[in-house]
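Q: What does the assembly look like in three dimensions?
Context provided by user:
Components: three
Sequences:
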Amino acid sequence: MRYIPHTQADRQAMLDEIGVSSVERLFDDIPARVTDRFRPLELAPKSEMEVARTLEGLASLNAAPREPVSFLGGGIYDHYVPSVVAHLTSRSEFYTAYTPYQPEISQGTLTAMFEFQTLVCELTGMEVANASLYDGATALAEAALMAVRVVGRPRIAVARSLFGHFRRVVDTYAWAAGIEVVEVPYTSAGRLDRSAIPEGVAGLLVQSPNAFGVIEDLGGLKEALGEGLLVVAVHPLSLGVLTPPGECGADVVVGEGQPLGLPASFGGPLLGLFACRERYLRQMPGRIAGRTVDVDGTVGYTMAVATREQHIRRERATSNICTNSALCALTATVYLATLGAEGLRELALLNLNKAHYLAEKAAALPGHSLVFDAPFFNEFVLRLPSEPRRIRSRLAEEGFLVEDPEPLARLGLPGALRLAVTEKRTKEELDRFVRVLGGIR
Amino acid sequence: MGYPTRFRYTKEHEWVDLEGKRAKVGITQHAQSELGDVVFVELPSIGKVVKKGDGLATVESVKAVSDVYAPVSGKVVEANAPLDAAPDTINKDPHGAGWLVVLEVADPAEVEGLLDAAAYERFLAEG
Amino acid sequence: MSTIFDQSRTERVGGLFPPLDVPTRKVDHLLPTSLVRTRAPRIPNKSEPELVRHYTRLSKMNYGVDDGLYPLGSCTMKYNPKICEDLARIPSFAGLHPLADTRHAQGALRLLYEMSERLCGIAGLAAVTLQPAAGAHGELTGMFLVKRHFEERKEPLRTRILLPDSAHGTNPASAALAGFTVTELASGKDGLVDLEALDASLDETVAAIMLTVPNTLGLFESRILDVTERVHSAGALSYFDGANLNAFLGRARPGDMGADLFHFNLHKTFSTPHGGGGPGAGPLAVSAALADFLPVPRVVHDPEGYRLDWDAPRSIGSVHSFYGNFSVVLKAYAYLLLLGDEGLREVSENAVLNANYLQERLKRTYRLPYDRLCKHEFVLSGAGLAEGVSTLDIAKRLIDYGFHPPTIYFPLVVKEALMIEPTECESKETLDHFIAAMETIAREARENPELLHEAPRRAPVRRLDQTRAARNPVLRHPFDEKAP
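A: Here is the predicted structure of the complete assembly.
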């Protein structure tokens, strides 16, 4: 096998040193009753060339029509990733390294973690951020658990307008922890119905832009919650132009970081963003890098406040998380550094403008309209004159990828499609889309 | 550093200094030495009522978190707030300025039942 | 160590995106003023060459498994095959959106389906979920399943999880997150589960036992069948943490040992890269009795092809946004295809051979608390080497010899523990160099301990002040203050 370096002579020398006659003797401690039951996979080994061919063959089964033009969203977007990002994150010193438990030889990982935490705080307007969680959904679930720990009440309010996949994960984690989940509906404007926020909750989970692409008005929400924590799930790129939740009274900000330079990769790996106010630092889950100095006074970075974590606190840890999404966080760091503040604003405005252009043109088609008259970033919901599933198939034949309308229907919006527009969509593509959409009978 | 004979001690390495109905509580020299540099202390709120053996406070070092248990039952009437800014006081002066809380004890006799300095030092020698 | 924040130009750099091709609208025509950001995030603007220099320099202050031996116990730092990296980048995989029409995702769905089947075959269990994004996540999902199982059976008294004192911290943390309390079992003198202690703890309040097999001392639970039989007789379930699967790949299956639940760490056993701490993948395999509780959606195969099935009324819900860490699963799948049955067996054979060789040579110089043949890892103690010298000192001195230190101070059952796992990918030559370094360090500890106390000297930074980092945490760049 290519990855095992031993020669026969090596193996024999080692067996002699250990003092056993054959390598089989090293497995005598596994009971025969167990090894007798063993069944192989009936899988012969393959060469590299053969495996490459097999996987390329599978990949070709993913055949999408023509050169697909994607309007898919839901937290995962088709953004342009500058070349430099892949080159830097493919350096093996970064990707073949382990968790930085020996900080003296992990300054690359730790410095990048520190940069990432700073960037997340800058984007969200929060005071402290961790070095990532698995994805936006589990980050939101962890925020709910944290709110319950801090306030001491096993009851949370969640906006109905969360992404379906965010809500499913929150519900699963809440059920296991014995936390009651109370849903808060949305208004005819597509925003959180403030009059329906229940009393006595440990926190409110709201998403902005929400599952309809609508930007929520967070002003005064914190005050309405009393002791409860305000948890806001964000779209990180939208914060290039939108007021960050930290300036609107949020206690915790979470989000899906995939738009920050990660490929869609059929939904994973993703990047869970988590940031909060300094006063909740010791309740925050996940790893954190901190600045310090070495014996010579040189500035360096190390894992800090680790006493919250599982390897020290065990069953009293703030979470069970060990492996996180480190390389994805590094990718996001390099991506944001490549953009710079100016580039991020430019990118956000490209997304904003193109989405509004499409929305205007599509809504002007006979029988079509925007479901909500509310501000949006790069995603919106369009009401259609006829069955959306049929329209989706017709669009696909022309190379346009849009989401399944079923989840929207479950959120109370039948007969509609959600569309996401990024900087990658050209005017030609947008105009052609409108032409095709308008021509569907 | 010796163990003040005026104090009483527990096997969880807490000390108690009783004056009338007020018991000052801290962790011992041995405890702070095992923990290493103290980086953070979490103290209970004033007015909290504890039974003997309940969790009272936590003391964190870089590598470990130590629970401090109530050596006797009582009510928290004072907490050593300056420890927030200077947790290392516990390392420097664990039996003096590094005190954690003052409890108003329900039953002063409970304190008498704890180890005296000699018994505590014997206990340390055995372990 | 400078960061990107230490120097910045305020001029824009640009050059990434073409100009807007649709009519430009003013922001205040599109959004109400209250929603528009007034203060820009303080992200530095850097030219591309400066950026590349900065991250290239950072990478050189790291140590990866491509640099040298990484003998971290229970981490299985094996070689990451480069073909797997390339395959994950095939555009129609890398660019595939999770909400794409499943008719356009047949290749990806089939890969997930086939990998699930193979993982069932390796586990010797009936069904698998690929959703968990890490081992701890797999453990949590497993605990959720245990909880649901007893909910359905109306056994609310079962609130306790048993685990050995050598368990990894994520085990009790996962149990606690799922609402269970944890009872630690003291290991026997032989380092294994003490059957008497087990019997004394097993009652109708126990939901499950969580075991790592082999355990974190690198010792195989030879009495495993007795353990799982007793657990099952008491009406409880057996959860196996698969972190140490490298020890018996290709020759034994957890299902045959009595496991009801078993999680994999694809970033350990299946060679996907660690990435500086993630992403990983922690698929969970379960027995037929628990299969209905697995998360949704599930990948199913019917005559029309592969699709996502959401119709599972007894499912616990979801634990991940979509279907798991797809590209990590892809790399692990390719690795599995490369190895085949033969390769899997070679992995455990050589992993165990390497560990025993190191153990045999190093026990002459260091204390070996459990002196018998081990599996893929073993634990030494740094205690007693020399006065005033700790395992931490030994670890830091190893850095000066060009090695990443082993795991230190774990498992907790051994004082001054040094947990060593070489993996199958290390040559005898590398192992001999490591042995030589460890022997030299032992001599230095007695003759010149300052070398250890002041280590590392040959690293990008010297020993870092952990106390200062924890006492006054600086967790993001202090923009408004002068640099320390």
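Follow-up: The first helix of chain C runs from residue 27 to 30.
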